[in-house]
Amino acid sequence: MLLFNPIVCIELTCLAVAVVFLIKDKTLFWRLALCYQILVFTVELAGSYMGGLGIHNLWLYNIFIFFEASFIFYGIHHCLKIYTKQKTALIFGLILTCIIYFSSFIIRGFLVYNSITISVMSVIFVIFTLYYYYLLLKDSSFIDIRTNPEFWWIAGVLFYYFGSTISNIFYDVLTINIFGHMSLTYLIFVILCFILYGLWTYSYICRAKQRKLQS
Amino acid sequence: MPIFLMMYIRSYNRHKKNHILEKENMRREFESEMLQTRIEVQEKTMQTIATELHDNVGQLLSLTTLTLNSVNLNNSEKAAQKIENSLSLVNKSIKELRELAKLLHGEQIVETGIGNAIQQEINWLEKTGTFELSVSNQLFDLKETSPDKDLIILRLLQEIINNIIKHANATIISLNFYHDNHILHLSVKENGVGFNYERIKAKKSGMGLNSISKRIEMINGKLILNSAPNNGTNILIEIPYP
What's the confidence (pLDDT) of residue B212? Predict the structure, then answer.
């Protein structure tokens, strides 16, 4: 049983960095980010363990989707509020995701992976991240991109969910086995996880630097 | 796509940063130039005051002392005459000192409006009695003000007048100031020795012309200068105002 698969390892590394750099952070978003990293790692570890034992684990990931969507929506709100006070579109996106999430359970049941919600929320997240960058470009002041935690956090979201959306669109083409039993979609997923948690790790480091400068 | 987006954002942000830094530098340069102008105006005022004190008030008071010293109390009729003359000289001195006190206000001259500030300069020029002046100042009733520009304009005029006094050997000066269609027009024409403007401009030397051009450029103004040796000089300045 391979408990520590590549994704778990990536998430563990990101969690370790989050613990080191965000533990003293008093901002709600960054505190939530730390909690989310713990949740992600726990779910992934449990899912991996259950999968290894041949126990059905999709219900676990289905529950996790709710927390994932909530956290990412809050994160986008946290980043967008620097440039705009407009919340309507974000609330609309959240409501739409919730409707799809719960109606999918009613229609397809709890034990079927909620892929429709994942696809829809991925598109919504990509749109909002692009909107964030549009506002950033439009803003009259400039930010130091290299050390801006929000910029890199959003970049992680954009890369991951844009990649997921493309991967979902071409799912049929990409489900081919490479390196023995490893499918191409799995490899893409590992790469996307690496990019997401890599960028988030960097954003946590930037945040710690920012906090140090502000104190 | 996200990679290209990141690259574009990075490049755009760098341009934005450069633009903001450039703007900041320009603002600093403007502020430094304003400070320099303020100092120059103050220096010019101090010079004028020193000259006036020495050449005018000083002379009047010396003459008063001489007159009072020569008073013979035995000759009451002549003494009364001399005392009266002394009194007149003292009154004249008081008047001159009042004029100087006005000058000491420095920047407050500009606060009363650019028309008044220019008129003050013309009055001093008139007092020298060296030039035949033809003046048309239509800036007294100007409703709009721009204190920073006013100070620069005043300094420009001071510099131009200074150049005429020092270098031009002119006898007639024609000054024309008016505001039309958000543009302030300053025209100074004299019949002095003139000079080759292009050559001086190329050499970047002499007569404070570079400083005049730079300051006009700083407030988005335009300088038209026509001059030729032995043919006088005609300076026309157009400044967006306020």
Answer: 84
Tokens of B215: 């300051």
Residue A1 scores a pLDDT above 60: no
Pure H helices in chain A:
6-22, 28-53, 58-80, 88-108, 115-138, 149-169, 171-174, 184-214
CA angle A42, A48, A54 (to 5 degrees): 135
Question: Under a CB-based contact definition with an 8 Å cutoff, are residues B192 and B233 in contact?
Answer: yes
Mean pLDDT of B8-17: 87
Which residues contact residue A105 at a Cβ distance below 8 angstroms, ignoring those fewer than 6 apart?
A62, A114
Answer whether A162 sits within 8 Å of B2, measured CB to CB. Answer: yes
- d(Cα A145, Cα A192) in Å, to the nearest integer? 22
The reply to whether A159 touches chain B by the CB within 8 Å rule is: yes
Q: Number of C-alpha atoms within 13 angstroms, CB side, residue A100?
A: 19
Confidence of residue A202 (pLDDT cuts 50, 70, 90): very high
- Tell me the nearest-neighbour CA distance from A27 into chain B, angstroms: 26
Q: Please state the rounded mean pLDDT for residues A118-147.
A: 89
Look up residue A146 and give its DSSP letter. G
A133 and B2 in contact by Cβ < 8 A? no
Beta bridge partners of B224: B236
The answer to whether residues A75 and A157 touch, using CB atoms and an 8 Å cutoff, is yes
pLDDT exceeds 90 at position B154: no
Q: Read off the pLDDT of residues B91-129 as tens digits, 9 standing for 90 and up.
A: 989 988 887 777 666 556 666 788 888 888 888 788 777
- List of chain B residues whose C-beta atoms are within 8 Å of the C-beta of residue A143: 13
Compute the nearest-CA separation of B28 from chain A (Å).
18
In CATH terms, the fold of domain B107-242 is Heat Shock Protein 90 (3.30.565)
- Distance from the Cα of A159 to chain B's closest Cα (Å) equals 6
> A79, A83, A130, A133: which to substitute to probe chain B, counting the most B Cβ within 10 Å?
A133
Q: What pLDDT score does A77 carry?
A: 92
Break chain A into its structural domains and give their ranges: 6-214
DSSP A177: B
